[in-house]
Inverse folding.
């Protein structure tokens, strides 16, 4: 591996190697690496066991310490170059003086690096579309206001307390059907298929080695965590009533579940729905779901979910429900990659599509077609009754 | 202190062609005493790294294969219950008191070491391979973190056992599920790719020196071309070596000579019915043409 550009020059006054490495770690962190203080320390140690003056060696050493995933590895070389090799500047032929001048502005190299890394950060994270970020923050101007319909639908018009009550019963039954997932581990239990030797032996000391009382071990049932992503874009409005009732009912039936709404952006509604008064809960959601009934960006929302909330709330014991018709106003390929990413968390994915209930329906919506390979169960649901009928299928998950 | 280049050479001498990235990661993991996490598709030789490291360092390899439901009794230690029962009976006949009996049966003598405990109690640092960590469940991963952090294990009846020697830990994963950030952060990381044509040729030459150069190049080129096809299960390095062994065992001198036999030997490379169907004789012949 030959050096791709000339090596960055640092101001004489900067705090030396440790400062530069700290600056580099900060640079990586800004570009999406998960690194802490311990990594800086580890990086310095790593440099001390190689010939750090050789750029190729330093590159490999830092890569093995700082990268933690295959994506990190792919992004690393470019980030390394932009910090240590200073590619851009070399091409502009303003090498030593321009560079030195920039570093001289600040007393501390870390600040100087911060500025530079922020600049290169833009070019190194193409996946995070700036407008997507803006939309999710709710401060975006252009895209958000173009797509978001600012008519505020009152959810109370859509869902009645009776609905929620009926949905709660169904949600509880569905939850119970999925919940019965047995663990492969064994735990001490009053009854069970195998004997817990450890406790039996211990108890038998008191009876002179005679195992009078047998302790058992069994496979406990592990609770499955249900996460619901409900599409409330314009095309889904006719079905919003059963779906929202279902989500609200689920939240009330199962305290471990988790819920999100999405249209042009993604909103977590778990906290809001936990309100004791179901109607007040809906009211709170109405406030959150500003833009309800607008266009849908399924792929981007799922991608955002997989990158953010899923890392905290979804694991191998989760079932993710997606309630959507699969009509996406953005690129449908995103849906496929987002679901693939989500799947890697080990969860199972259930897609409930209201349109599938129609006779002769084929999943032709391109978003839907892209999603199908990653979905464990694809089923129809457009009324509360049809949700209730899913119970046996849930048991097979 | 070993240099990473000498480590790479030592690996090559044992028949493992390590990329510079991998050799560097191994060197750093060794120097800093950190676990090394290897990720990559199945069949790129992750497990082989540990085996080769053990033979380079001339130490023993302790392997813990992970699976869903793996628990402490299988990974760390277990009491030898049968012996304990006998001991209790015997001491009851001698008229010993409960307390002395208890002390006796919960002593080292009755402890069965499982791989993790075994690894930290060796007189010389062994290589500890924790294979397919992503198959174990999250509880085990969390426990493992604790062990890897301070290399000590607490047995309630016995007290804390500290490591007599720090094992060289290698973890492998192939993406069954995402690993926790905590585990990733604690490890040195290296992503093992399928070898490129030259590296793979070198691997073949080292492993099966008997194959003549023209055929070896053809075999490697064919497998490399095959990996680019849309397959469910992409053939790994071990499959390539099997394929080479099959070809040379059948006395074939040129892959394009006998399409029928070539098709028959594909059983060493293609392991699902769909993949078999995806590569009919014509496609195989075209790939051989590309390889040459």
């Amino acid at each position: 591996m030959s050096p791709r550009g000339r090596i960055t020059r640092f101001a004489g006054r900067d705090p030396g190697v440790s400062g530069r490495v700290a600056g580099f770690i900060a640079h990586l962190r800004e570009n999406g690496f998960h690194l802490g203080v311990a990594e800086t320390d580890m990086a310095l140690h790593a440099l001390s066991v190689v010939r750090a003056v050789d750029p190729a060696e330093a590159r490999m050493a830092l890569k093995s310490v700082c990268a933690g995933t295959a994506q990190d590895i792919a992004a690393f070389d470019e980030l390394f170059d932009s910090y240590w090799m200073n590619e851009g500047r070399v091409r502009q032929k303003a090498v030593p003086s321009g560079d030195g001048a920039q570093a001289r502005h600040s007393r501390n190299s870390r600040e100087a690096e911060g500025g530079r890394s922020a600049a290169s950060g833009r070019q190194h994270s193409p996946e995070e579309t700036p407008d997507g970020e803006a939309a999710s923050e709710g401060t975006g101007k252009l895209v958000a206001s173009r797509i978001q319909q600012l008519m505020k639908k009152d959810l109370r018009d859509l869902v009645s307390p009776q609905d929620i009550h009926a949905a709660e019963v169904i949600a509880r039954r569905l939850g119970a059907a999925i919940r019965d997932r047995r663990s492969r581990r064994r735990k001490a239990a009053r009854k069970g298929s195998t004997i817990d030797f450890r406790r039996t032996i211990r108890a038998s000391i008191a009876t002179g080695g005679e195992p009078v009382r047998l302790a058992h071990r069994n496979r406990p049932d592990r609770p499955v965590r249900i996460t619901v992503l409900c599409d409330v874009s314009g095309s889904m409005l006719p079905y919003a009533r059963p779906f929202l009732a279902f989500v609200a009912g689920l939240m009330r039936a199962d305290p471990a579940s988790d819920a999100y709404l999405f249209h042009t952006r993604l909103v977590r509604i778990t906290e809001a729905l936990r309100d004791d008064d179901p109607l007040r809960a809906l009211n709170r959601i109405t406030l959150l779901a500003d833009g309800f009934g607008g266009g849908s960006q399924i792929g981007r929302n799922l991608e955002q979910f997989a990158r953010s909330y899923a890392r905290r709330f979804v694991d191998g014991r989760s079932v993710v429900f997606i309630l959507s018709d699969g009509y996406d106003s953005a690129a449908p390929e995103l849906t496929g990659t987002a679901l693939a990413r989500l799947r890697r968390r080990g969860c199972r994915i259930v897609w409930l599509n209201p349109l599938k209930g129609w006779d002769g329906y084929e999943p032709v919506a391109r978003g839907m077609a892209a999603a199908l390979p990653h979905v464990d169960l694809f089923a129809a649901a457009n009324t509360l009754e049809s949700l209730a009928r899913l119970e046996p299928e849930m048991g097979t998950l | 202190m070993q240099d990473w280049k000498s480590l790479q050479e030592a690996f090559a001498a044992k028949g493992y062609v390590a990329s510079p990235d991998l050799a560097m990661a191994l060197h750093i993991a060794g120097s800093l005493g950190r676990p090394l996490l290897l990720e990559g598709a199945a069949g790129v030789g992750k497990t082989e790294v540990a085996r080769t490291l053990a033979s380079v360092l001339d130490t023993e390899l302790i392997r813990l294969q992970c699976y869903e439901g793996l628990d402490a009794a299988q990974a760390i230690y277990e009491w030898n219950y049968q012996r304990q029962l006998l001991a209790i009976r015997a001491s009851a006949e001698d008229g010993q008191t409960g307390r002395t009996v208890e002390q006796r049966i919960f002593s080292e003598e009755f402890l069965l070491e499982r791989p993790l405990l075994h690894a930290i109690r060796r007189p010389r640092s062994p290589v500890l391979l924790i294979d397919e960590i992503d198959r174990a469940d999250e509880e085990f991963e969390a426990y493992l973190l604790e062990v890897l952090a301070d290399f000590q294990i607490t047995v309630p009846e016995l007290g804390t056992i500290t490591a007599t020697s720090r094992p060289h830990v290698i973890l492998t994963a192939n993406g069954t599920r995402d690993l926790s950030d905590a585990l990733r952060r604690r490890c040195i990381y290296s992503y093992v790719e399928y070898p490129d044509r030259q590296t793979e040729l070198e691997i073949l030459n080292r492993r099966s020196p008997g194959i003549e150069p023209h055929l070896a190049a053809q075999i490697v080129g064919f497998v490399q071309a095959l990996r680019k096809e849309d397959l469910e299960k992409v053939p790994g390095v071990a499959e390539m070596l099997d394929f080479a062994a099959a070809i040379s065992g059948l006395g074939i001198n040129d892959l394009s000579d006998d399409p029928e036999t070539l098709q028959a030997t594909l059983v060493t490379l293609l392991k699902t019915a769909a993949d078999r169907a995806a590569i009919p004789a014509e496609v195989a012949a075209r790939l051989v043409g590309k390889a040459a």
In short: Chain A has three domains: 17-126, 155-178+222-395, 184-219. Chain A touches chain B through 43 residues (CB under 8 Å).
